[in-house]
Amino acid sequence: MAYFEMVKTALRTVLQQPVTILYPAQAAKKTPLSRGHVIIDESRCISCGTCQRKCPAQAILISKEAKTWQIDRFRCVVCNSCVDTCPVKCLFMDTQYTAPAAVKGVETVTITYVKPPKPEKKDEPKQ
Amino acid sequence: MTKQIIVPFGPQHPVLPEPIHLDLVLEDETVVDVIPSIGYIHRGFEKLVEKREFPEYVYVAERTCGICSFIHGATYCQGIEQIMNIEVPERAQYLRVIWSEFSRLHSHLLWLGLFADSFGFENLFMGVWKTRERVLDFMEETTGGRVIQGTSKIGGVRRDISSERLDQMVKDLDVLDQEMKELTTVFLHDDSVRHRLRNVGTISRDDAYHLGACGPTGRGSGVAVDARKLGYGAYDRLNVQVVTDSCGDCYSRCAVRAKELFTSTDLIRQAAKKIPEGPVDVKVTGAPDGEYFMRAEQPRGELVHYLKGNGTRFLVRSRIRTPTLSNIPPLIKMLQGCELADVPVIVLSIDPCISCTER
Fold first, then answer.
1. Of A83, B8, B16, B357, which is least packed with CB atoms within 10 Å of its CB?
2. Nearest CB to A79; choose among B59, B121, B124
3. Which residue, among B56, B162, B313, would best test binding to A if mutated, counting the most A CBs under 10 Å from its CB?
4. Separation CA B312–CA B100 (nearest Å)
5. Nearest CA to CA, how far is A124 from chain B (Å)?
6. What's this model's pTM, rounded to 2 decimal places?
7. For B147-169, how does the pLDDT look when each residue is reduced to its tens digit (9 = 90+)?
8. Angle between the A7-15 and B122-143 helix axes, to the nearest 10 degrees?
9. Domain A31-110 - what CATH class?
10. Complex ipTM above 0.85?
């Protein structure tokens, strides 16, 4: 027979500071590995389309002609698949969540990558 | 004869985290029969396997359930690895055990909190969820996600835990153990809790066995079933203790889960001690051709992933049998003959996870 087993724990928590934080007034607890949202370095993206193919949620759309990289933040499940598979490592995972939005829409980034000119072939006659 | 009436219970009910609908056939206040119906949140995950390449489907498989997510992902990966005969590095297998056991801790703590809430012990509910936050913090620190870890992949794991972090983790487990001990004392010894749960929703060992109870629901009735004893992953090198209780009432099921918290921390300690150095993944080439039934132990019981591939990048068939599905027939048996006021507690005592049941 035991009554009031909880009292000791309850009294201790009364004397302690609250364990919850006042998000968003206070920043959320984040670690270096936390998955918040995907960001792109548009100056390095080669528009290969790997991230679009590997996205399980089909949130990414790449247009080679218009040179744009689009992401639908409402479809993205922040799984890190695109970041892992990007061949030029131009995608990164930011630790903070995206801000809440009232309207659904896609985020478009214009790719500024310029293909470096091919080194000119030396026209040396074969000997 | 008393007039029978039908009272609908769910799919929206304060005690239910997820939608299940039960038609309770009552005679006065006594439940004489129950007609269950599910199907409110079917999402077509099994069909999606034909539309996503098998390495990407890991992310989908992991999102089958929001609580035992890591174990779903790991089970799917192990199934594919078995079809393709991939030898997974030792370290990856141990890391999967560590994360699986942390998932179990987090799931059981979540359930203990909800259960306390179902019998009106709000303070205990808050206390348990405060402790659960420690487990989630560890998950986020090592994998990047609090609930959806996303670290399992075909051929190994995506992230490694450094040996210093593992040492720190084992030290932190002592604090966690201490906190859990205080909380489980309330569940196991407090008289008001015992009074509410003893002899409520009793199911005998034979009934539980024949109706296919699995996991803590079966173990609470004395059926010593635990898929971890099959020795998948690194479990064959660890000493897995199967916790059972003989009474088969709500208190027994609560006691089994409360005691399993400590077997989980024990398994994590064993794994952290035995974990070898080495790579955490191997390169995977080719595509699965064949079929496999992968069985694993989830916090709620035995999980089965059936996978079939035909040598292309897309699987042909995936079938997921979750423990809640096989725990619904025992639940019906438990509810027959109980009082209407006991129904919420009994329904919660099987730890229903309807989202993953309907996939």
1. B8
2. B59
3. B56
4. 30
5. 42
6. 0.87
7. 888 888 888 888 888 888 888 88
8. 60
9. alpha beta
10. no
